[in-house]
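The instructor's notes for this session suggest beginning with a concrete chain rather than abstract definitions. Hand out the sequence below and ask the class to guess, before any prediction is shown, which regions might be ordered.
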Amino acid sequence: MPVTLTIEKRDAKNNFIPIWSTTIDPKSRIVNPSVLKSPFKTVTIVENGKASDHVDIVILGDGYTAGEMDKFHNDVATLTAELFNVEPFKSRKSDFNVRAVETPSASSGVNKPHPGVFNRTPLSMSYGAFDSERYALTYDNRTVRDVAATVPYDYMYILINERTYGGGGIYNLYSTVAADNKFSPYIFVHEFGHSFAALADEYYTSDVSYQTPEITVEPWEPNVTALFDPAHLKWKDIVTPGTPIPTPWVKTEFDNFSYDIQKERRALRAANVPETEMEQLFEREKQTSLAMFEKSQYKDATGAFEGGNYFQFGIYRSAQDCIMFTRNKQEFCPACRKAISEVIDLYSE
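After discussion, reveal the predicted structure:
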């Protein structure tokens, strides 16, 4: 039956206003009803029931040659297992199906324009999206959708056969991750948080390619807030009793340290050093910040901690630490877990 597609945008008060609409009729002569016969091989990783009442994830791979398909399968299995080791995915694994689709590449690896490494692959994955050396996306949506449609899917992940730290995640589009980095398990889970549950980045010291607007309205993402109305905090129901709002934490010490780390990071990338040196920097950052956070009185509390969504001031997150904030641990904060669980409920109930 016909459906109406409407595009809306938010106004200054966060209300959604229709700006364009059209009707799509599947019986229209401009709609091709022929079945797409996919030439791609598939493998089932997790199967718990019908697609109609489960969350179906499809995982694609780019930069894997025909001789590297075993590696692709192993990467899929390893990273999928990592996702289901993190709550609330761990407790809700029975609500998911996961399938993978093979797309062998003529050569190994993908395009990396910043260091001058160029390649062409079936899905056209490339680092350098938004001119960020670590952000990896493809703009060949038609090809990606044709490949993904080989199996039923609600959400998509694309694995990149690379060691260079990178990935990306856009809500309701897909997530990507470089499969061979030391921090690939972190990236895999972090980026899926973006595409699956519309989670905002909670960090604010790293370089990003986005232009951050003035904070005049409450962010729509479920895990950050401008705290314009503390009495109606969006995760008020899970705040730890007795926790002050805003919530004190070791912010000044962390900010000074983290901004220095980012200076080192930029210098290392500019020098095109081996990836092991970047991983060592991230590991040092992790261990130092973990020790720093232990000194905080409210380290285990749910409250409103300043800093998030690329803003050093004026935006707040629900916990001192979270996988959307640092690489310290594979754990979502309470607000993130709540948002993820609500999305799972939409597909499984």
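Then share the key points. The chain has a mean pLDDT of 95. The chain has six helices and 13 strands.
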